[in-house]
Write a structure and sequence with these properties.
With about 1400 residues, this protein is an alpha+beta fold. It is built from 48 helices and 39 strands. Helix 28 packs parallel to helix 31, helix 31 packs parallel to helix 33 and helix 39 packs across helix 46. It starts with a helix and ends with a helix. This is Dedicator of cytokinesis 9. GO terms for molecular function: guanyl-nucleotide exchange factor activity.
């Protein structure tokens, strides 16, 4: 009923206005005569007319914010809401966040920083050791859209349930249908136990009697519960319970299970019991439903009775007493519930807005995480057993388990046949039984060679005993697919040819004699040649089912194939694997009888007790020597940028692969067939120098050794090798570091022939070769062909061929004339050394200049330009180190050309990251890793100042357009660096305590202003040719300007916003409007937007109180100057309302979302805060009144449907009305309107005067028709076409800045959004502000104000369930091609509110 009364009230007031101001209606003909006929106009014609008629609004100079807050300091401090006027002192701060790794200690060796001499190595170590440097904005959570506010529930769990008159009949029908109740109809029946309720006798179990109960509805609508002795209900009942007198139904299990009690008005009660809990609940539910219907019927009677009462107080008392006498307890509980509901805070207005419920996070900034070590698909490989068919007991006394007759050694690695490469390091496993390992116990101490310090820094944490026999490894695969194989290569102790050694294992007969013979030979070989290995067999299995990384756990290893001595290399293995799925080819390979049991599984995130490839334990590591350790195996990630991650830990590994030795033509040695290669890593070529203990050992030996042997091929003069030797490189490499390879002929002949001395000679040196590790300062990694010498003189590294048979250095005897007989390759996996020549040269030159050499600008520019040729994956891998050095060079540059070229390199790096989809790395760098250099005024400059100047140069029209386009496209990075540099500069140099206008020099203010001015032509002129770049630049500039409010002179920032806005004009293309309102959206979302607008009195003379505030209800120049941002936004919205629909929607959305944010902001939750905010938006009233004729639409359907028009015709029947009209000045209404009426409006005098109609005399029985029946047209009477705009000259400052106003209607979504803004301000503003507005406004403005209020009632009127249902059907009929969900959504949209 409230809505109906409101409409009648508004219509009554309006009638009085029209009665006193009838002459206003004369204006209709004059206005119509000025309208242009536009039935044949196109949209382009209209745009042309608008752009030619709409003058560019004049810019209003903002106030000098910093001076104002100083001048009004006392007034601000005395304001009770001073927190709305001042920025907080702790607005931002810098912080250091400890770098969190997954290891128990730093991965950088203890003395690495001291040892490092190269600038690149030093900077890399600093990168991995440094903590994260953050700039924290305390109120940053409030700087986004309303959906990103903290502590805000976007969706309501449940709205309070209300019953509307329009739905009462529908509800009654539904209730009747649900109960199945009709006259005389059966509603419920069944057997119950009835307790004897005689007050003289206590109720016991025995007093219950089983009766058949029948619930029936009588003719008057009341209900009786009859009970019978049996199911024959046609007889007279034994008794009846009249539910009209029932007060409530409650469960009562004190006497009997499943019992419930009916409490009656006369304080008596009936105790009934069911046979089961379910049946009891059914009875209680249906009886309570009946009581609820009785209660609602009583309430309706009460309301009907009240409508005939004149005295309001007597009505209240009468209804209360009548209800109490009827259902006192229910009435009491209902009143309590009503009081509780009213006492609770009302739901915020915008909670009910459909736009506020949309989960749209498109404007949210991406979550930024710090750099962290990332892996591909991780696979746990468990090595369980290797057993061959040939077995026996190896113990001397033959007491013990049956095992393999000799030791075998397994090496696991991953091969990718799709990309034809080995993708992991080797994982060595010893699966031999303890008794079999004992066969090697007396091996030569070469495996345990040497003493001295190993690279491991984890003494006391890792126990070598626990690491000697690993059985579990974790492999990682960045690009999983089904063509990746896990390959197991099996070796044994050197004994003879592969064919001869494998023959006993290939026979199916299990002869103990054969086993004993093999065992005997094996024992002799282990004693004599235990340190030498020979290839024996191989097996493989697939890893993945698909490219998603799902493990193929059901796959098993293939048969164990004998190793072919002519197909040993990794290339040969890839060829074999290519035929793995071809049974006809695999069947030709010789098979060794045995079984390899290795399983694979996924790796959980909390997997315990493992070490990485450098043997650094993770945080889940247990320091117990008995706990088995799992080893991570290095992945050889492809050198592709998109698969590369920025390095975060120290790793410095070199993998060495001897591949081939051509010795068939050598004449230097008499016998060189069973050739073993011993690899050592040395830092000197002196005669007595020792190899470094930095080679990773094999199972059963020490963790690190001084030498490693490759597998030996029996009787091969040109042996191939597949071995991988892993070396931990020193932190700082120098020219003397080299690999030394010693070749031995190993005597396998163990016959009794010959002298004892001859038999004891196991190995004979047959040559030496060496490979210096550094070439031009970089580690050698390409495949090398090197000669072999017969001797090894001291200083052999100094040997140089001078040509013409001459040489420099010691005398060396070359084998086979110095031909390159050895093929060897190396693979570097290092996070402190780079293979890229350009990057190496740049850092090397920087090191020279830092060490005192004179920096030549031209030279530096040359090295900077060469960085554009840097490999993409290297750039990504060393990203933080590279960017840090570039910014360091930028601040130390003495020439503009150097600074500009540095910036160009940074642009190139940023563009490469984006093009590879690795933008997240850049965001991580800016937020966590970037740290401005310490500022020394005499020596260095600041990054923000130098970068701003360089950006200006690059944005000049004469500059390279490709570079400037990249700068525009990825400008967010540069603006974010500027912001962080400014913040760190202010705090670290204690400038944050200075006044805002003293924090930065005038040169920097000029540089910022220049950047803004240089950017604008790119944004406003390139949006067609380069839309992505201009759009990104526009958004990035907005974010930068917004953050400048935190650091800089806020008046200066206002001027930059003015500079920005000045580049736009009415009639711009839609894209430019999008840019402009995106800019305003971002800037107005500043966390301190309210203090920036200074919601406080601005007056001359004495300090004003807020209560004395002369409020601005229109967009005067003074208002826009004093409240700059809100004034600018409202002016731009007003201008946009004169544009076409797409532009209007964008502008209205920005305004409404900002108001939603104010409403949900918990910092301004109180009524007084909201009222103060509302004062900033009071000029919106004037804006809406200017457009009242376009808002004045009552049709609430989602689309107009005219009678007698088909759907097909309707699409063509657009209103042929010119959207432009020039308003004429008319006379204002006489100010002598009835004082009582104005008093009634302002709430001072009684509204019941002779000039108002008798509101009570207007009656309407049903509110469903009240709004519809007041007028038969599609919209409210359009009085604005009958009158002129009556805004007073002294009050009005034209919102549009021109004389052209559109008069076409806004669509429903626009109207609703504007009305929601109107209602929010109306709801939030103080009563004093509203009364002041009513008293100051002209009569025409008041009429328009109430017209807008009335439109609100129509637009948000609840039409009832039947209307929604019928609308859904209508939509389904009109749009049969749409699905049912679409129809329902349109129906919901068409329902107001």
């Amino acid at each position: 009923m409230g809505c109906t009364t409101s409409v009648i009230l508004f219509k009554g007031i309006r009638t009085v206005f029209e009665r006193n101001c009838a002459y206003m209606c004369k204006q209709q003909g004059e206005n119509n005569a000025l309208e242009y006929t536009a039935y044949n106009w196109t949209k382009e014609d209209s745009e042309l007319l608008i752009s030619s008629w709409l003058a560019k609004p004049k810019l209003i100079e903002p106030l000098d914010y910093e001076n104002v807050i100083v001048q009004k300091k006392t007034q601000i401090l005395n304001d009770c809401l001073r927190e709305m006027l001042l920025f907080p002192y702790d607005d931002f701060q810098t912080a250091i966040l400890r770098r969190q790794g997954r290891y128990i200690c730093s991965t950088v060796p203890a003395k690495a920083e001291e040892e490092a001499q190269s600038l690149f190595v030093t900077e890399c170590i600093k990168t991995y050791n440094s903590d994260w440097h953050l700039v924290n904005y305390k109120y940053e959570d409030y700087s986004g859209e309303f959906r990103q506010l903290p502590n805000k529930v976007v969706k309501l769990d449940k709205l309070p349930v209300h019953v509307y008159e329009v739905d009462e009949e529908v509800d009654k029908d539904e209730d009747a249908a649900s109960l199945g109740s009709q006259k005389g109809g059966i509603t419920k029946h069944g057997w119950l136990y009835k307790g004897n309720m005689n007050s003289a006798i206590s109720v016991t179990m025995r007093s219950f009697k089983r009766r058949f109960f029948h619930l029936i509805q009588l003719g008057d609508g009341s209900y009786n519960l009859n009970f019978y002795k049996d199911e024959k209900i046609s007889k007279e009942p034994k008794g009846s319970i009249f539910l009209d007198s029932c007060m409530g139904v409650v469960q009562n299990n004190k006497v009997r299970r499943f019992a419930f009690e009916l409490k009656m008005q006369d304080k008596s009660s009936y105790l009934l019991a069911a046979d089961s809990e379910v049946e009891m609940e059914e009875w209680i539910t249906i009886l309570n439903k009946i009581l609820q219907l009785n209660f609602e019927a009583a309430m309706q009677e009460k309301r009907n009775g009240d409508s005939h009462e004149d005295d309001e107080q007597s009505k209240l008392e009468g209804s209360g007493s009548g209800l109490d006498s009827y259902l006192p307890e229910l009435a009491k509980s209902a009143r309590e519930a009503e009081i509780k509901l009213k006492s609770e805070s009302r739901v915020k207005l915008f909670y009910l807005d459909p736009d506020a419920q949309k989960l749209d996070f498109s404007s949210a900034e991406p979550e930024v995480k710090s750099f962290e070590e990332k892996f591909g698909k991780r696979i746990l490989v468990k090595c369980n057993d290797l057993s061959f068919n040939l077995q026996c007991c190896v113990a001397e006394n033959e007491e013990g388990p049956t095992t393999n007759v000799e030791p075998f050694f397994v090496t696991l690695s991953l091969f990718d046949i799709k990309y034809n490469r080995k993708i992991s390091a080797d994982f060595h496993v010893d699966l031999n039984h303890f008794s079999v390992r004992q066969m090697l116990a007396t091996t030569s101490p070469a495996l345990m060679n040497g003493s001295g310090q190993s690279p491991s820094v984890l003494k006391g944490i890792l126990h070598e005993a626990a690491m000697q026999y690993p059985k579990q490894g974790i492999f990682s695969v960045t690009c999983p697919h089904p063509d990746i194989f896990l390959v197991a290569r099996i070796e044994k102790v050197l004994q003879g040819s592969i064919t001869h050694c494998a023959e006993p294992y290939m026979k199916s007969s299990d002869s103990s004699k054969v086993a004993q013979k093999v065992l005997k030979n094996a024992k002799q070989a282990c004693q004599r040649l235990g340190q030498y290995r020979m290839p024996f067999a191989w097996a493989a299995r697939t890893l993945f089912k698909d490219a998603s990384g799902n493990l193929d756990k059901n796959a098993r290893f293939s048969a164990i194939y004998r190793q072919d001595s002519n197909k040993l290399s990794n290339d040969d293995m890839l060829k074999l694997l290519a035929d793995f799925r071809k049974p006809e080819k695999m069947a030709k390979l010789p098979v060794i009888l045995g079984n390899l049991d290795i399983t694979i599984d996924n790796v959980s995130s909390d997997f315990p007790n493992y070490v990485n490839s450098s043997y650094i334990p993770t945080k889940q590591f247990e320091t117990c020597s008995k706990t088995p350790i799992t080893f991570e195996v290095e992945e050889f990630v492809p050198c592709i940028p998109k698969h590369t991650q920025p390095y975060t830990i120290y790793t410095n590994h070199l993998y060495v692969y001897p591949k081939y030795l051509k010795y068939d033509s050598q004449k230097s040695f008499a016998k060189a067939r069973n050739i073993a290669i011993c690899i050592e890593f040395k830092d000197s070529d002196e005669e007595d120098s020792q190899p470094l203990k930095c080679i990773y050992g094999r199972p059963g030996g020490p963790v690190f050794t001084r030498s490693a042997f490759a597998a030996v091929l029996h009787h091969h003069q040109n042996p191939e090798f597949y071995d991988e030797i892993k070396i931990e490189l020193p932190t700082q490499l120098h020219e003397k570091h080299h690999l030394l390879l010693t070749f031995f002929h190993v005597s396998c002949d163990n016959s009794s022939k010959g002298s004892t001395k001859k038999r004891d000679v196991v190995e004979t040196q047959v040559g030496y070769s060496w490979l210096p590790l550094l070439k031009d300062g970089r580690v050698v990694t390409s495949e090398q062909h090197i000669p072999v010498s017969a001797n090894l003189p001291s200083g052999y590294l100094g040997y140089q061929e001078l040509g013409m048979g001459r040489h420099y250095g010691p005398e060396i005897k070359w084998v086979d004339g110095g031909k390159p007989l050895l093929k060897i390759s190396t693979h570097l996996v290092s996070t402190v050394y780079t293979q890229d020549q350009h990057l190496h040269n740049f850092f090397q030159y920087c090191q020279k200049t830092e060490s005192g050499a004179q920096a030549l600008g031209n030279e530096l520019v040359k090295y900077l330009k060469s960085l554009h040729a840097m490999e993409g994956h290297v750039m990504i891998a060393f990203l933080p180190t590279i960017l840090n050095q570039l910014f360091r060079v930028l601040t130390r540059a003495t020439q503009e050309e150097v600074a500009v070229n540095v910036t160009r390199v940074i642009i190139h790096v940023v563009a490469q990251c984006h093009e590879e989809g690795l933008e997240s790395h850049l965001r991580s760098y800016v937020k966590y890793a970037y740290k401005a250099e310490p500022y020394v005024a005499s020596e260095y400059k600041t990054v923000h100042e130098e970068l701003t100047k360089s950006m200006t140069t690059i944005l000049k029209p004469s500059a390279d357009f490709l570079t400037s386009n990249k700068l525009l496209k990825y400008s967010w990075f540069f603006f974010d660096v500027l912001i962080k540099s400014m913040a760190q500069h202010l705090i670290e140099n204690s400038k944050v305590k200075l006044l805002r206008n003293q924090r930065f020099p005038a040169s920097y203010h000029h540089a910022v202003e220049t950047v803004v001015n240089m950017l604008m032509p790119h944004i406003t002129q390139k949006f067609r040719d380069n839309p992505e770049a201009s759009k990104n630049a526009n958004h990035s500039l907005a974010v930068f300007i917004k953050r400048c409010f935190t650091f800089m002179d806020r008046g200066f920032v206002f001027k930059q916003i003015n500079n920005y806005i000045s580049c736009f004009a009415p009639g711009d293309p839609k894209t430019l409007f999008e840019y402009k309102f995106e800019f305003l959206r971002v800037v107005c979302n500043h966390e301190h937007y309210i203090p920036l607008n200074l919601p406080m009195p601005f007056g001359k003379g004495r300090i004003q109180r807020y209560q004395d505030l002369q409020l601005d209800y229109s967009l005067t120049d003074e208002f826009c100057r004093n409240h700059f941002l809100v004034g600018l936004l409202l002016r731009e919205v007003g201008t946009a309302l004169q544009e076409f629909r797409e532009v209007r929607l964008i502008a209205i959305s920005v305004l409404k979302n900002l108001l939603i944010k104010h409403s949900f902001d918990d910092r301004y939750a109180s009524r007084s805060h909201q009222a103060r905010i509302a004062t900033l938006y009071l000029p919106l009233f004037g804006l809406l009144i200017e457009n009242v004729q376009r808002i004045n639409v009552r049709d609430v359907s989602p689309f107009p449907v005219n009678a007698g028009m088909t759907v097909k015709d309707e699409s063509l029947a657009l209103p042929a009305v010119n959207p432009l009209v020039t308003p004429q000045k008319g006379s204002t209404l006489d100010n002598s309107l009835h004082k009582d009426l104005l008093g009634a409006i302002s709430g001072i005098a009684s509204p019941y005067t002779t000039s108002t109609p008798n509101i009570n005399s207007v009656r309407n029985a049903d509110s469903r028709g009240s709004l519809i029946s007041t007028d038969s047209g599609n919209s409210l009477p359009e009085r604005n076409s009958e009158k002129s705009n009556s805004l007073d000259k002294h009050q009005q400052s034209s919102t549009l800045g021109n004389s052209v106003v559109r008069c076409d209607k806004l669509d429903q979504s626009e109207i609703k959004s504007l009305l929601m803004c109107f209602l929010y301000i109306l709801k939030s503003m103080s009563d004093d502000a509203l009364f002041t507005y009513w008293n100051k406004a002209s009569t025409s403005e008041l009429m328009d104000f109430f017209t807008i209020s009335e439109v609100c009632l129509h637009q948000f009127q609840y039409m009832g369930k039947r209307y929604i249902a019928s609308l859904t059907k209508c939509v389904a009929l009109l749009l049969p091609a749409w699905n049912r969900n679409d129809a329902c959504q349109i129906a919901a949209a068409g329902q107001p509110g």
